[in-house]
Amino acid sequence: MSTAQTTLGEKLQSLPKPALYLVLILLTSVPLLVKITIPNKEAKPSANFYTMVTGTVDPTFPAFTTSIDATKPVLIQTDWTTSTRGESAGQFKSLMRILMIRNIKFCFYSAGDPQAPQVALDYISDINEERVKAGLRPYERWKDYVDAGYFPGAEAICNAIQNNFGTAFKNVQDQDAEGAESSVFESPVLKGVRKVSDFSVMILVTGSNTSNIAIERIKSVPMIMMVTGVMGPETQVYYDSGQLKGLVTGLKGLYDMESLMDKDPQFKGKVTTLDNGAKYYPTLHIALLLMIIAIIIGNVGMFMTKKRAA
Amino acid sequence: MMDLLAQATPPSDSSPFWSAPNGSSHLVIGIGAALLLGIGLIFLLLQAPVRSRRWIVALFTFLAGGYYVLYFFWPTAIDRQPNDLPRNPMEGVTFWISDAFPIVSTFTNVLAGFLLGLGIYSLWRVHGRRIVKQQKDWFFSFVLLASSVMMAFIGYADWHSRQGLNGPLLANKANWHPINYAFDFFFEGGLQQMDAAMFSIIAFFILSAAYRAFRIRSVEATVLLATALVVILSLMGVITNAWQSGINHLGGPDAFVQNFSLDTIRTWLTNTVQTPSIRGIDFGIGIGSLAMGLRLWLSLERTGS
Amino acid sequence: MGAQYLDTGWIAEAFTAMLVLFVLFNIWRAENAGKTGKEVYIRRIPGLNAIDEAVGRATEMGRPVIMVPGLPDYVDAIVVQAMNIFTYVTRIAARFSNPILVCCYNASVFTVAQEMIRDVYQQEGAIERYDQDSVRFISDRQFAFAAGVSGLILREQAAATFFLGNFYAESLILAETANSVGAIQVASSTQNTQTPFFIAACDYVLIGDEFYAASAYLTRQPVLVGSLVGQDWAKISVITMVLLGLLTTSIQIQGKTEMEKVASGPSKGTFAHVQVLSNPADPKSPMVDGPPRQMTVADTFMYRMLNPLPRDIKFHDEKAGTFERPQKPATNPATAAGGGQ
Asked: Which of A282, B62, B67, C332 shows a CA-CA span of 20 to 30 A to A176?
């Protein structure tokens, strides 16, 4: 069929991919140039997550009053790398800001990606720079947090953590204050920790299905999660069943967290509250809008062609 | 024999069977002996008649898989403390399984290390030949091999520079040496950014795939499109707020019309329609995995026939 | 019980054992079908015809078939299943001298794949046509792998692609790239989140356990066919459990109860009379036996059976400790200190 014979309907059905891609690039670049504020209503799972880690009860959701014991350390499984940083980096940063402001010690490890611990360290370093600029003390490795590294085989390590945390992390070392590799159990963070229930909460920041594996295996500690939008539907079911005490999903969840932080005097003015979520949420809007328009154009083209054929 | 796999932390032995301090002669001798023993065993296995070789492989598969079956199904000890001894033979097995786990995992890691070597050998063979024969796009093969050597070298040098007292010092960028900057440039500036770039391509592909696939060709496709639209719109704060204002205008907080907020419809769709479907598919996949695992463990599978 | 069942107790292990028996029994039944004269019947999934069609088209066009057995961390059941299907594809390709390419994400998968593909050529008597480079290790970094495979699809102008196994975010990148070169695509991901992407971009998608069923349909090996029938029995059992739970729970929660399971404290897991505050206005007032209350899901038979809520047994607790374990002689202070060594 030659181009001259192509009808408008057919054209609408076969828009060239490069044109679609170009429009996407142009439109999603708009929020980089113009500041757009999107109205937001926080979702319950995000508000619940927020209450767990901050102790602040949002007036919109007065029923959620549980909060973690700030004197106990937090166990973090971080399974994201820069590929999902659009969502995960913002989530991780907001979590770090909260824990650091509240002086909560934490231990992190990865069961999903060997690069993940290094990525986490990089972002912790960024937050530390931000804290120093704001006149706050930097969070110190070994004293305030430990990096337990990467464990291959998520199922095995999650099972081992549940069965006996002391054995699971027995050979794990991190650099102590003198730079020597020492057992993480000698650090101020994990001193006295032997069981997973000695942590106040377990938090997963993930872009993959390690969330499912963790929730299927680990049960002796309250669990909350920060997952990407794609993992949302699969993880939501565990929140609904009560197995997760809080859930932050994708960019929307991140924006919820940032909005809540922005309203909370614990954080407002002390640390950055509106960050990646506020920056990227308008971009998501535009991309979704473009997708809807593209679908409509394709369908209009199809109907025009059908009508012509009839 | 029962203790052989569980000697990571023997009660009174300071030199456990399966490990030795880094750099010690004990370790070097151990690795050498294990290598020789491994090569000898493989040689013996190759000498065995084909029929008995199959039985030997099946036996090893059964034993190796058997450990994990026990690990997952044997009752676990409640609140075990580091110095506890088992109360009865049943708990003795529990302790043995739990203590052997780090050793068995290390076996797996050692095997994976050797296999990674084979993988890298394949990569070098394919791309090395392309460079030598100056085949089409040989330059890209050169870039690949050069990058892998360089990243290994820089990564090791960076790690080495952070050992000892330098570690805490290098947490501050002001104290960095050129090698730390080089690692940061290639790891953070190169690898990580390329990873992110590949991931971001999905945004383009989602758009083109959605444009091509979401056509109202049948009743099912129409239902799919409608639900997709609800979910997409519910992710857009502007739309959900506008929709909610409209609904609030129609009725108060307890009005029936409140059931039709975008969030409520989306939640209903995900919880009532999507989640059960996912669970149903998951059951199928789980049972399929179980059956497949059984066939492999018991060597019932005859692959390649 | 083990941690794997979220404390579902013996019932879950018994149920798993039953499913295992179903599979093994049906494998035995299928293997002995010749003796008993009762053939095990399975119907064919129409979508599987696409496999023959895809390879046929690749042969006509003289372009390669590209196969990817997912992105697993190690050789697991899913990889072996994908490779089983790939050996079938390779067999057809070998008969027609059609080039193939198997792209591996993991080095251990690479070695297994190499063995299996070489075996196929050997069995077909065409070992001279086996190209050692047709099975390749690409990278074990997710997006480096996606970039590598996409590059191969574009450069080799693949006529057919098979993406079967564990795929994650790269699924759409691979599928859209293959779509752009006009390749006929058969795909399946055991990751539910990725199935919609494959459906949007591929020609044929095996959903859920169709992936596991495929090799049985294709090869008709008695072990695989029997196992498949066993899987169906297992699925029927799961459905029965779900329906039973639905029915008993729906009926039970209509009633009232005056006994409830204690959720915490020293009596956790035991049954006690429903407790209420003696003075509802004062939260510090003592608890007394209350009137029967409406049953909740947590009070139902099915819920209790699957969530036994075991009693907390406190070891090393001087007040409650009756289950002290004997202690190792503390000769090594490093290991005696707990946790680390």
From this structure: C332
